[in-house]
Amino acid sequence: MKFIGAGSRPGQPQIHQDAVFTIPNLLTVVRFLGVPLFIWLVLGRHEYGYGALVLAIMGSTDWVDGYIARRFNQMSNLGRIMDPIADRLALIAVAVTLVIAGVVEWWYLTALLVPDAILLSVSLFYFRSHPDLPVSRTGKIRTALLLVGTPLLVLSKLPIPATAVYSVVAWIFLGLGLLGHWIAAYNYFWAIIRKGKRLKVDNVDDGGLR
């Protein structure tokens, strides 16, 4: 069973609908709600074990909602935009929380924020909003690596056996995830510029009516 693009049905086109109340969108909302819960558990209660569990659930919903959307034709225009935003919010908010808690250093947060800040600036320059680009395979793998590595890193801070192993494995996932983060950002950067320039040319050709 493949993990990237799981649920896809060969030979059937993937059509994004205007539906709002779908199971994948509901799962994405659950992922949004998991962010403040994780922050409260780690910073308010110092419950790293439950925090890791919340991260694991959030990571699993990221895969499950994509599977359901593709398998049962519940892909929506709202979900296409909301899903990557939920992923990014979760990764950044969790990173900020872990920096405050002393679990990771500031450079980890910086490595996440700098590419996103650049992409946001370029998107606002060309589109004044979300560029609405499809999520790349590199982006999906990047997100999966970070979503696996983060709860492992949290687990390494618990008074349990093999914490050193958890830490090493976590940083392998996180290191590869950060590398993929920058590669994906580089590809998105040029995709945004290409799309922005095409849109500008189309506007000129249509007399600026668009």
CATH architecture: Up-down Bundle
Estimated structural class: mainly alpha
Mean pLDDT rating: 87
Report the total helices: 6
Q: Which key features would you list for this structure?
A:
210 residues, mainly alpha, Four Helix Bundle (Hemerythrin (Met), subunit A), globular
Describe the structure.
The protein is mostly helical. The chain has one domain (23-205): CDP-alcohol phosphotransferase transmembrane (TM) domain (Four Helix Bundle (Hemerythrin (Met), subunit A), Up-down Bundle). The chain has 6 helices and no strands. It has helices spanning 23-44, 48-71, 77-101, 106-127, 137-155, 163-205. The longest helix has 43 residues, at 163-205. The N and C termini lie far apart (44 Å).
